[in-house]
Every structure is written in structure tokens, then in C-alpha cells.
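Predicting holo structure, zinc ion bound.
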Amino acid sequence: MQEKLDDLKKRLAEISDIHNAAALLGWDQQTYMPPGGAAARARQLATLSQIAHEKFTDDAIGCLLNALHAHAHSLPYDSDDASLIRVTKREYDKARRLPPALVSEIAYASAQAFESWRKARNESRFCDFAPYLQRILELKIRYAGYLGYTDRIYDPLLDEFEPGMKTAQVEAIFANVKKEIVPLVHAISSKLHEVDNSFLHQDFHEDKQWDIGVEVARLIGYAFERGRQDRSPHPFTTSFSRDDVRITTRFMPDYFPAAFFATIHETGHALYNQGLRHELERTPLADGASLGAHESQSRLWENLIGRSRSFWKFFMPRVQAVFPEQFRNVNAEKMYRAVNRVQPSLIRVEADEITYNLHIMIRFELENALLEGRLAVSDLPDAWNTRMQEYLGITPPDDAHGVLQDVHWSHGSFGYFPTYSLGNIFASQLFDQIKKDISGLDTYFEKGEFHILLDWLRANLHIHGRKFTLDELANKITGESLQTHSFTAYLKNKYGEIYNL
Ligand code: ZN
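Done. C-alpha cells:
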């Protein structure tokens, strides 16, 4: 049995090396590669991804998994080996169900759709993008059919990003959140002027923004000797092993929070990967549990810490030292309120902590309607605008500020969006547990001591890697399934106080 397990691990280690080499090429593509390198890089990435796919879907892996099935069941569910066999089997079965021809057809259609989307967004003309989206939609419907489902067509697509999660469960979770936050947003809408953030809109020299970003990343525990930060048009985190986890950021010269919070966000993702156990390296378990679980870490650091009063009590003198002119008359309390200003807005990536989730729910509802044939692609802009008005009280003036703003659908990434909000929700649930386990957390934060929080996350979440689903993690760590009351209570308390509701 040990021999078979060793054989499986050896094969998976090689596949993992190929994926990580591809990730390094992808990192370079978005940071340092000259534009001329694009065509060759696309070929190199396609070749590596094909080799990895062929190796992973090899019959030999299926035979090993079958032979190890009984062995896995004889071990504790959470043991490294049982988890490795279980998670590998889950991914193997999915990969084997998809015809390679369909996968490359989707890759090809996505490349075309992406180009069309970029152009259509620049010109704000949805009708130019519509035929490409229609094509992607038809391909993804076939894709979902191959993966298989019993209830909803969205289930297998969601499962790719959030294993084990069902559409109906997300609907129930979102309904709970929506019923609490729509009235909250409406109540705040009449009091928007009560929070001043004008001092955040000034000139902030890029080099100094860089320095303060590095300082905050280091403060919350990012190990630069096992990572690095670079610039890219869209911030992201990538890793090639737990000892090489990289983040990127971008700067707005006239708005302080953009780079600052993007850096904390990406650092949150990176801390998760830097906290994985060495023993899980070069296996399919060497990553965060899911996109939602990963986003819970970025959001926890960005919002629950970075936008907290206790954080600013400690950190305000630091930013004041770097930007003395800009923040001359700003104290910690004023900063706390400013970075939490709520403003219903058109663009998801610029949205505040509350309204962000409404942007996600709109996309989730529309994706389901498209896939289930309840909504025609040509009617998508109208459906988008109607919901924006209903949930946020604003209507986009054009497609670029509405239905065309996100890249995801051009990539065929249906099922991705909900994981952003699931991350927000899980972050609050975790944080309630952390407050139960560690008393006086704020006192630590006010002194700039964040290691106590990182240690907790390492011991309770990061060490598991990809062994468990989001719901399994929620149960294991907090004793209940993913729930919404922690998140809605957090929002109502925090913003009720800021806006005097
Ligand atoms: Zn993120």
C-alpha cells in the first residue's frame, strides 16, 4: 500500500512542479514581461497546462486512487494521507469528465471574448460583446452538463471555485444578508455627508505609498524573506511554494486608500499560503481550501483589522510620519470614519464593505438566470440596471459603468463571484470565534501586536491547507456551518455607530 501511495505522491509532486513553474511564468507576464513576449508566453503556458492535464488525467492515477480507496477509509478523515486521496479523487473525477476538445474550445473562445470585452468596455457597447458572451454561455452550459448535476446547472460551476457548496445554499445565505443590508444601505443613504473623507483625496507620492505598504505588510506578519512585492495593473497574490509567496500592488497618486488596502488585502492572501504546512508541499493540498476561504483571509485583514478603530489607534502616527502635510489635522478617529465611508457606487471594485455584497448578489442572480434560460443575453444590460436601481438606488449611465465592468464572464468564470461575499461572511464568523478564544484583542492591536491573531489563524485554519471544504472548516473551527448572523451583526453594529442610526 505504501508503495502505491508513494507512487501517487511522486506523480502529484511532478504535476505540482509544472503548475508552479506555470505560475511563475504567469507572475512574470503580469509584472515584468515586455508586451512583445505575449504570444510566446501564451504558447508556453498552454504547453505546460496541457502537460499537467495529461499527467493528472492519466489512467495510472485513476488506478492508484482506486487501489488506495480502502486505505483512505481506514485512516482518520483529517489525516494527511486520507485527505490527499479524497481531494485528489474529487479533482481527478472532475477532470476526467471533461472532454479535452471542449476545454480547449473554451480556452479559445475565452481568448476571443476577452479581446472583444476589452474593446466593448472601452467603447461602452455591450451589443458588440453580446455574441461572444452568448458563445461562452453555450459552452459553459455544455461544460456543466459534462461535469453533471442533479439540482441546478450552476452547481458544478460553483463547485469549481467553492467545492461542496450548492447554489441553493448560497441563495439562502445571500437572502439572509440582503434582507439586513438593503435597509441598512437605504438608512445610510440619507446621511452620506456625515462622514468626511476629503483628506484621503490629495497627492500621495508613490514611493512613500510603497514604503507605507511594505511597513503594514511586515507589521501584520508577511515574511519578506519568503516573498516579495511588485507592481502590476491589477493586484494579485501568487505562490510557487510556501516559501515563495508573492504579492503585487498598484497606486493611485491622488487617493490614499487604494494601494494601502489593496496591499493589506493581498498580504492577507499571502499569509494564508505562507502559513501552509511544509508536509503538504507539492501535493493538491498545498493551497487555501477554496476561493471563499482564501477571500476570508484577505478580507479579515483588510476590513476587520485594517478598517478597525484599534488598528488606526496604533497606525495613525505611522502614516502621519510619512505624510505629515496631508494628515496634519487627522486623528485616528477621523481616519477610522473616513476609511469606512459608505457610498453606493457603480463599480464593484471601488465599493465599500457593505454595498460590495450587493454588487456580488446582482451578478450571482444574473448568472443563474442566464444559465437557466430565464434571461436572454440581449436583455442583460436592462436586467443589470434594474437590479442596481433596486438594491443600490443608482442606475449606470452606460454599459462600461454597468454590465461591462468585470472581466470574469469573458473568461467563462461563471460561479466565481459568490466566493467574494462568502469570504466576507466567513471572515466575520471566524472573527467572532477568535474573540471568544482570545480576550482583549483590541488591546493587542492598539499596541501594534498582530502576531496573536496570525498565530490563531495559522493554528486553526492555515495548517489545514486544502483538506476541507469551506463548510467543513466552519464546523471544525466554529462548531456551526457557514452562517450569516456574525456578518450582519458586525455590519449593523459598526455602521450603526458610525452613522448614528
Ligand atoms: Zn482577494
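Strands lie at 227-231, 237-241, 244-249.
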